[in-house]
Amino acid sequence: MDILVIEDDPSVRTLVQTVLQKDDNHVDLAETASGGESQAYENPYDVIVLDLGLPDGDGFEVCKRMRDENITTPVLILSAEQETDVKIKCLRVGADDYITKPFNTEELLARIEAITRRNNGLLEDRTLTCGELEVDVLERIFRVNGTEVDLTNNEFNLLVYLLKNKNQIVTQEEIAVNVWDIHFDTQTNYINVYISYLRKKIRNHSDKEYIDTVRKKGFIMHCGQ
């Protein structure tokens, strides 16, 4: 795989590079937010490993700007912060996973494998439909009644998971694990927030309610039988 590592700490940068190269990956390095963004815009990487604390900006803004520029490359965040709120903020700006420093090198490799596996898994079925909803998984395009609707990376991945499990109840825990590979506190409203984002964007183009909340169980995407 081609992997970009954006990290200002030389010891961490060297460690990550060494570990990834031993696993037969090609690794490019960047020490700053601006340098990392430039490389991400110019090259089609398979994964981006991004530090939160950079000398000329923070990883939150870097990730958000990349998503705003429609760069859908999976992003793994590195940070010494362990608070759940920080992890949730990373996901809200479009990151795919999060690992805390200091980290086990085997976990680093496993998390990279997991996010690339999930990303590749989304491509198994090129087109997914549900009533007026249509998703081109390969091109990452979502349409409602023929109108293209912009989704963030996380919104798109959540929608694909719901469509692949249409007419079935899926729990918050199942969504967290299968869409983000993260185990959330069941009291968090993070999943509810993303469900509400999807509902709102669908409602802008359709009178039908596709996503229902099933009390104390989870959510269901109604598509008919």
Please give a structural write-up.
This protein has 225 residues and is of the alpha/beta class. It has two domains: 2-121, Response regulator (Rossmann fold, 3-Layer(aba) Sandwich); 127-221, Winged helix-like DNA-binding domain superfamily/Winged helix DNA-binding domain (Arc Repressor Mutant, subunit A). It has eight helices and 14 strands. Helix 6 packs across helix 7 (172-180) and helix 6 crosses helix 8. The termini are far apart.
How would the global form be characterised? elongated
Put simply, the count of helices is 8
What gap, in angstroms, lies between the N and C termini? 40 Å
Largest sheet: 5 strands, parallel
* Class by SSE composition: alpha/beta
CATH topology of the largest domain: Rossmann fold
Low-confidence stretches: none
Rg value:
18 Å
Number of strands: 14
CATH class of the largest domain: Alpha Beta
Q: What is the count of distinct domains?
A: 2
As laid out across the biggest beta sheet, the strand order is 2-1-3-6-7
Beta-strand percent range: 15-25%
CATH architecture of the largest domain: 3-Layer(aba) Sandwich
CATH superfamily of the largest domain: Response regulator
Keywords:
2 domains; single chain; WH-like_DNA-bd_sf; 225 residues; 42% helix; Rossmann fold; CheY-like_superfamily; Arc Repressor Mutant, subunit A; five-stranded parallel beta sheet; four-stranded antiparallel beta sheet; elongated; two-component regulatory system
